[in-house]
Design a protein that fits this description.
mainly beta, 5-stranded mixed β-sheet, 26 strands
């Protein structure tokens, strides 16, 4: 009796173990056909209009899926256009492989704002399952547009600090857009100056209402000139009580980043000496992208420095991009000046069209001790001695008479 019982238990354990092994093998070997949205046209799709939908069908499992078919199911608020293909036979799909399906749908006039599910029936052999893909819908009752871009300064150029651009958000629809937020993506060469440089919360915008949004930023010296496009998205709600009704629209606006002349000191030549007038030569290069007309360089006088100039401003003229020009200053150095290196401040001005561009720069100039000053110093005691000796010789007779 014991032998029979043991035999039965062993058989049961073998069956359970086999089933467990089969279950484990089944769990390890699986297929998973997953649909997702690539993009839509328009973005977001509009209620009451046609919409082009591009889908991606991918096997995210680890086993080949056999004889895969995808059927687009009509379900509110989406309906397949009559001339479009409903059933798509994809065949076998290996793990990681994907297919793309493009189709056109009719969107119901009364489709709710926000995410709505597009249903797909996916069949593998004799097994079918319905998958839902979320598609964003926007009601025609709200239409937000950008208008009237203005910048400060009016002409933006590289190397501009504390620049500002303001644009208006207009609701051309028939319904209030709630909790409107405008986000911009500053391109390369632009730098935000605060947390508000790329995001503006505008609150509610009623039908016909206009609200301005302002953004502050810096334009770096190396920013590329020409047409600049600013990617933008406008996010809003259609109903403040429903988080699912949040809509995000992607758009962009553009302006021209103008070139300008920019200057760099490339060479300084000076042999300044105490108590003498010498030349100071400064060579400039136009490192900007535009021609500079009427280029001038002016020394910024400082009462703390032992220098005076025959002329504090020198005219260089026109400098094309990458062209150099030289200014020569006549500098008189005080006799009592300390022989050392001095930092001299200059202002450079150039003109493009009617716009004047001004830059400040600092150059280093060395002052040495004058040779004439050096040789005259030890002569002074000698001269005094000679005068005293000569006077003594001249008045020797008188001195003797006084002594006697």
């Amino acid at each position: 009796m014991k032998t029979k019982t043991i035999t039965i238990l062993a058989a049961v354990l073998l069956l359970v173990g086999g089933a467990a092994a089969q279950t484990t093998t089944s769990d390890r070997a699986s297929t998973q056909i997953q649909p997702s949205i690539i993009n839509t046209d328009p973005v977001p799709v509009q209620s009451g209009e046609d919409a082009e939908i591009n889908l991606k069908i991918r096997n995210t499992g680890n086993t080949e899926a056999k004889d895969v078919k995808v059927q687009i199911v009509d379900s509110f608020p989406f309906e397949l256009k009559p001339d479009r293909k409903r059933n798509h036979s994809l065949g076998n799909i290996v793990p990681g492989q994907e297919y793309q399906i493009s189709t056109e749908l009719l969107v119901a006039d009364n489709a709710p704002d926000g995410m709505n599910d597009l249903k797909l029936k996916i069949t593998q052999g004799d097994v079918s399952i319905t998958r839902e893909v979320p598609v964003q819908i926007q009601s025609q009752n709200i239409e937000l547009n950008l208008a009237n871009l203005k910048t400060s300064p009016s002409t933006l150029t590289p190397d501009t600090e504390d620049a500002k651009m303001t644009l208006e958000v207009v609701n051309n629809g028939e319904k209030t857009a709630e909790n409107v937020v405008l986000n911009i993506d500053l391109p390369e060469g632009f730098e935000q100056t605060s947390s508000f440089s790329t995001r503006q919360a505008l609150g509610n915008i009623q039908p016909g209402q206009v609200k301005p949004a302002s953004f502050n930023f810096d334009v770096k010296p190396g920013a590329e000139v020409g047409g600049i496009q600013i990617p933008t998205d406008i996010a809003y709600s259609t109903d403040s009580s429903q988080s699912t009704s949040r809509i995000t629209e992607e758009t962009e606006f553009g302006f021209n980043l103008a070139g300008k002349p920019r200057f760099e000191v490339v060479n300084v030549e000076s042999k300044l000496k105490t108590g003498s007038t010498e030349q100071l030569k400064i060579e400039l290069r136009n490192i900007g992208s535009e021609k500079s007309s009427s280029t001038r360089i002016r020394v910024l006088d400082s009462a703390d420095l032992p220098f005076s100039y025959s002329s504090s401003s020198k005219y260089i003229g026109t400098l094309e991009p990458n062209q150099t020009g030289t200014a020569v200053f006549e500098v008189e150095t005080e006799t009592g000046a300390v022989a050392k290196d001095y930092l001299l401040d200059f202002e450079i001005r150039g003109v493009k069209d009617t716009q004047v561009y001004v830059e400040d720069t600092t150059v280093k100039s060395t002052v040495s001790k004058s040779e004439s000053n050096d040789s005259s110093t030890p002569l002074i005691p000698a001269v005094v001695v000679l005068v005293v000796v000569g006077a003594g010789f001249y008045f020797r007779d008188r001195i003797r008479g006084l002594i006697s």
